[in-house]
Amino acid sequence: MEQAAAGSLASLGGQTMGTTWSARLYAPPGSDLHALHAGIQRQLDRVVAQMSTWEADSDISRYRRAPAGSWQRLPAEFAAVLACALDVADASDGAFDPTIGPLVDLWGFGSAGRPRRVPAAAEIARERARTGWQSLQRRADGRELLQPGELQLDLSAIAKGYGADLVAEHLRARDIAAALVEVGGEIRAFGRKPDGQAWRVLVESEVDEEAAIEELPARVLVLDEAAVATSGDRWHRFEQDGVRYAHTFDPRRGAPVERAAASVTVVAADAMHADAWATALTVMGLEQGLAFAQARGLAARFVARQAAGRLHESMTDAFRARLAA
Questions:
Q1: Residue 97 Cα distances to 62, 92, 198, 235, 311, angstroms
Q2: Whether the Cβ atoms of residue 184 and residue 52 lie closer than 8 Å to each other
Q3: d(CA 279, CA 295)
Q4: CB proximity list for 115: less than 8 A, separation 6 or greater
Q5: Per-residue pLDDT in tens (0 to 9) along the chain, 325 residues
């Protein structure tokens, strides 16, 4: 079995949620890295088993199929993620909504396997009638959830962040002094390096292959017991009649966000909240989202497209305070 050397940085990685995970960590001398790797994978597999709409036997898929009027028991992790999702939905006035599953499938971004296309207005109206976070009813301290009938949860905009958090807490419990965990681009950092320095990460600047990025300066974040997540339209998108449609949905319209920011990056205490808020602010848009984040003290950075593919950066005071000097 491979073991950690004294004071050395170990790097582990693997596959999960249709993407990759990695962990850079400082482990006590003699730590079994194979066991740590297996433990990390188990944590992420738990998230998939509970919250993946692509797995037919996951808890979220079983909830989708549950009969109308039935109360469904939720695992503790599922309940915690749903509680966070509902808090962000409430605070964002519905810019974030964990019930958008029917719309995601309708536009071809979900697990139903439908082709990506622009649906008719009547189709959108029909599926929107099946959504709405306000309709969710919980009991038993949030561990039981009512299925009112054909309600389809989708936690894709928060699950990867939660996965990073779960891995971080798992490593802490195994006496790992410091780690930088990344799941599909969402990052959670804890502890300090042996030299006493906090973790530092470069904020992604290459928004897409067509943009002119030379005007964007490199931004390095200091993550001292913190997390960072980025939402953007670079991933999972299609074009129809010259219009780009990305996978980030505006639940209030029942359609992908129009003129979405190229990327929105959020720093928070944990990756679950950072992930959810990055999505919510993307839905709000640059003007509203930036003002909202500034007023609430959220550490957020927007990169917006301008004429000729140029990119413009805007950030809140809280985000600026997180940048390396």
A1: 19, 9, 34, 20, 28
A2: no
A3: 17
A4: 108
A5: 465 555 689 999 999 999 999 999 999 888 999 999 999 999 999 999 999 999 999 999 999 999 999 999 999 999 999 999 999 999 999 999 999 999 989 988 877 778 888 889 999 999 999 999 999 999 999 999 999 998 999 999 999 999 999 999 999 999 999 999 999 999 999 999 999 999 999 986 555 544 444 567 889 999 999 999 998 765 566 666 666 767 788 999 998 887 788 899 999 999 999 999 999 999 999 999 999 999 999 999 999 888 766 888 999 999 999 999 8
In the numeric block, the tokens 């030299």 are attached to: 195
Distance CA 120, CA 144 (A): 35
Q: How many residues does the chain have?
A: 325
**Which of 325, 63, 294, 47 minimizes the C-alpha distance to 184?**
47
How many Å apart are CA 245 and CA 165, to the nearest integer? 30
Asked if 263 and 200 touch (Cβ cutoff 8 Å), the reply is no
Query: How far is it, in rounded angstroms, from Cα 74 to Cα 59?
Result: 8
215 token code pair: 């005007």
pTM equals 0.92
Number of neighbours of residue 32 by Cβ within 10 angstroms: 15
